[in-house]
Amino acid sequence: MACGLFDLTDRVAVVTGAGANGGIGHAIAVGLAQYGADVIAADIDLAGAETTAREIANLGRRGLAAPCDVMKPEQIAQLFEQVDRAFGRVDILVNNACVSGGRMRPEEMTQEVWNKTLTACLHSAFLCSQQAIRRMLQQASGGVIVNVSSIMSMTAFGRGNLSYTVAKSGVNQLTKELAVEFAGRGIRVNAVLPAHVNTAPMRRLLADPKFGGPALRERILRAIPLNRMLEPEEFVGPVVFLCSSAASAVTGVLLPVDGGNLALNAGGSHTWPND
After folding, report:
1. How many domains are contained in the chain?
2. 3 state SS for the chain
3. Is residue 215 part of a domain?
4. pTM (2 decimals)?
5. Catalytic site residue 164?
6. How far apart are CA 81 and CA 90, in angstroms?
7. Which of 109, 135, 178, 194 could pair covalently with 189 via S-S, beta carbons 3.0-4.6 A apart?
8. Catalytic residue among 35, 164, 182, 235
9. What is the CATH number of the domain that holds 124?
């Protein structure tokens, strides 16, 4: 169990996209429990959320699985009503759930794809934050929100990713605006920005010949000075830090967890010509 600055004992955390699919949300949900938090694992995949909740219970913390499609505002409201009934408070919110509507050339993009991506990635983060903030304002202890953004929010990525990068850029600005609005009222808001992460969807992408297979993997690694993709578990430390007393003066921060990607100049390389 954690102690001192990083102790989250008895804090109540809501994590969206927390189903046990090997992704970032699952790792964060279990990681917060390892540091003492009780966790509501919310996911459109209820069976996956139930698996996560059992893992949390096995750590000696309270784990609750909650079905939630974050693209539906009424389900977000129901999620927080469920939290009220089970825990009566919200100390931590991690906005992780997001899906891309699909990759399309900008001139061919449909309104359906555009709307789906912004709804899943940006609108849902706002609505979940709104629900959490209303509750945090009633608590003397305030609370913490961590948004999972992307390094793709910081520079243009191309290759049909327009709707996703715009949505994640919106998440960044949402983070900063909420941080400023509520800094004086005991609520801190930050974001983590992942690079390429070794998740099931990423593995499927790399295995798909139409995306280049080994050539795509090589291209990805050239942009990451650590020379490897990240693992979901590597987001536990940064998120626990941002949620803990160790980060009591940290708000409005966009924290890259990217293996050095954003530090690397687009024309640069982490290998020498003769390597």
Report:
1. 1
2. CCCHHHCCCCCEEEEECCCCCCCHHHHHHHHHHHCCCEEEEEECCHHHHHHHHHHHHHCCCCEEEEECCCCCHHHHHHHHHHHHHHCCCCCEEEECCCCCCCCCCHHHCCHHHHHHHHHHHHHHHHHHHHHHHHHHCCCCCCEEEEEECCHHHCCCCCCCCHHHHHHHHHHHHHHHHHHHHHHHHCEEEEEEEECCECCHHHHHHHHCHHHCCHHHHHHHHHCCCCCCCECHHHHHHHHHHHHCHHHCCCCCCEEEECCCCCCCCCCCCCCCCCC
3. no
4. 0.94
5. yes
6. 11
7. 178
8. 164
9. 3.40.50.720
Band of the pLDDT at 268, cuts 50, 70, 90?
confident
Q: Do the domain assignments include residue 117?
A: yes
Residue 8 lies in a domain: yes
Confidence class of residue 223 from pLDDT cuts 50, 70 and 90? Answer: very high
For 75, the domain range is 4-195+230-257
236-249 mean pLDDT: 98
